[in-house]
Amino acid sequence: MTLPYKYRGIVLLAGLAVVLPWIAWHFALCDTCAALRDCRHMAARLETLEPETAQPAAVGPGECELVLSGGLLDTVRRAAAERSVQVAGYEPLVTAEHDGVAVHTAQLTLTGGYASLLRVVDTLERTLPACRLRSLVWQAVPDRRTRKIRLTLTLYIQQIVLKK
């Protein structure tokens, strides 16, 4: 079927007016609108949850402070001893103080096998409710005595403490 020349422009314009919006909707806007709808649904569900679940745990003045007191180091040593991981270093410090709130950070260095280090990290994430793991740094370091490569994991753990 051949269109006469004088109607060809109108048919192409009508096709463009129908096909172009359908292509834009199908290939770009449909997924975007679905994602926006899902995002709004999840935001509404999050608002119905308890507000305490979204707040970071802060240690009050009468509660236990783990980073500077050494309680964190004891917990890490217990978890590491079960999985043949060695604690190579521990540096506690206060990173921020403002309006009665302090952030205490501990830098822990662990050495051992990859699987055992992962299990220790999993144990620490589950058993330290007042502390949060903020960063993990993996390094392959040559041992000076044996000249073998050993895996080193540096953990940065933070705790928010309310000051008196």
Verbal overview:
The chain is of the alpha+beta class. It has two domains: 5-53; 58-162, Alpha-Beta Plaits (2-Layer Sandwich), CATH 3.30.70.60. It is built from four helices and five strands; from the N terminus they run H-H-E-H-E-E-H-E-E. The chain has helices at 5-48, 51-54, 71-81, 114-127; strands at residues 58-59, 86-98, 101-111, 131-142, 149-162. Strands 1, 2, 3, 4 and 5 form a five-stranded mixed β-sheet that branches. A hairpin with a 6-residue loop joins strand 4 and strand 5 (149-162). Helix 3 (71-81) crosses helix 4 (114-127). The longest helix has 44 residues, at 5-48.
Counting DSSP E segments of at least 2 residues, the number of strands comes to 5
The CATH class name of the largest domain reads: Alpha Beta
Largest sheet: 5 strands, mixed
Strand content: 25-35%
Helix content: 40-55%
Structural class: alpha+beta
Which parts are unreliable, with pLDDT below 50 for 5 consecutive residues or more?
Answer: none
CATH superfamily of the largest domain: Ribosomal protein S6/Translation elongation factor EF1B
By CATH, the topology of the largest domain is Alpha-Beta Plaits
Give the overall silhouette: elongated
Mean pLDDT: 85
First-residue to last-residue Cα separation: 88 Å
Q: State the order of secondary-structure elements, H for helix, E for strand.
A: HHEHEEHEE
Cα radius of gyration in angstroms? 29 Å
- The CATH architecture name of the largest domain reads 2-Layer Sandwich
Task: Indicate how many domains the architecture comprises.
Answer: 2
How many helices in DSSP terms? 4
